[in-house]
Amino acid sequence: MPSYSYLFAHAPHWSGKQNFRLGQLSPRLQSWINEPNSLTQRLRTSFGNHVRVSILFQGWQKPFVDEARALKIPASLHTLVREVLLHIDETPLVLARSIIPQATIAVAQRNLSHLGNRPLGEVIFSYPNLQRLKTEMTQLDAEIWTPACRERFHLDAETWGRRTIYAIPTQAMLVSEFFLAPLFCD
What we know:
It is a single chain. By secondary structure, the chain is α+β, with helices and mostly antiparallel strands. It has one domain (15-184): 3-Layer(aba) Sandwich (Chorismate lyase), CATH 3.40.1410.10. It has helices at 27-33, 39-47, 65-71, 102-107, 120-124, 147-153; strands at 15-16, 51-61, 79-88, 91-100, 131-140, 159-168, 171-179. The chain has a seven-stranded antiparallel beta sheet with strand order 1-5-6-7-4-3-2. The protein is globular, with a radius of gyration of 15 Å. The termini are far apart.
């Protein structure tokens, strides 16, 4: 079974933060990209407890090759791929894609494979041994999104994202988050 994504027509290109001129980004965008704690908690602090998660896709799939490389797993290994929208009512705020290998799910005592509409950040930031191993950034053109995603979320401008490799306690997972325009409206 090939890689599948509701979000992407093809895999995004990621770079280390040092390859971007962060000073040219708005202070508001910089603060979201550099958020060290749970993005879900930050959204709830900023927008209230009305922040919800809608699952766009969840299933056992092969990750994109660069995702497998980042996690140091074989590209042929099926992982739990979870793509979600964090939103308030009809207002989309963040799109996210998580790649969770079976070994990570086992260490987390299966809590990560039975999330339902609970935010992943709500679960992983409750682990005392959570480690942030690496963070990268991307700037996406509208063409990278699938037509269905681009139309549904009005993704006609550049979108910034970050992806982070977390480990619980030694098993890794990859979480990519993409910051949508309504997040920056006053």
